[in-house]
Amino acid sequence: MGVSKYGIKVSTSDQYDVLHRHALYLIVRMVCYDDGLGAGKSLLALKTTDAASEECSLWVYQCNSLEQAQAICKVLSTAFDSVLMSEKS
């Protein structure tokens, strides 16, 4: 899973095939959490919308670690905060 100014790219573990892309402007909400089942699985949930904002989708990904999930959330939060701050200026 990679994060850029364009959004999130989900690819195979060898980075060869792109499985899905989430455009930054279509991400409504994100949250990282432990699965709560005692297995230590760290999950990243994304709520996205379509371009017409008519439908929402929920995507859940298993991350390699809680640190990875938190890092992705932090990068996206920083990007969103930067955009919101620039709108206020």
Automatic annotation (TrEMBL):
CC per GO annotation: cytoskeleton; lamellipodium; nucleus; plasma membrane; ruffle
Subcellular location: Cell membrane; Cell projection, Lamellipodium; Cell projection, Ruffle; Cytoplasm, Cytoskeleton
Entry keyword annotation includes RNA-binding: no
Gene Ontology BP term (one): positive regulation of cell division
Source organism superkingdom: Eukaryota
The entry's keywords: Angiogenesis, Biomineralization, Cell adhesion, Cell membrane, Cell projection, Cytoplasm, Cytoskeleton, Differentiation, Integrin, Membrane, Mitogen, Notch signaling pathway, Nucleus, Phosphoprotein, Transcription, Transcription regulation
A molecular function GO annotation: integrin binding
Underlying gene: ITGB1BP1
Protein's name according to its UniProt entry: Integrin beta-1-binding protein 1
UniProt-listed Pfam families: ICAP-1_inte_bdg
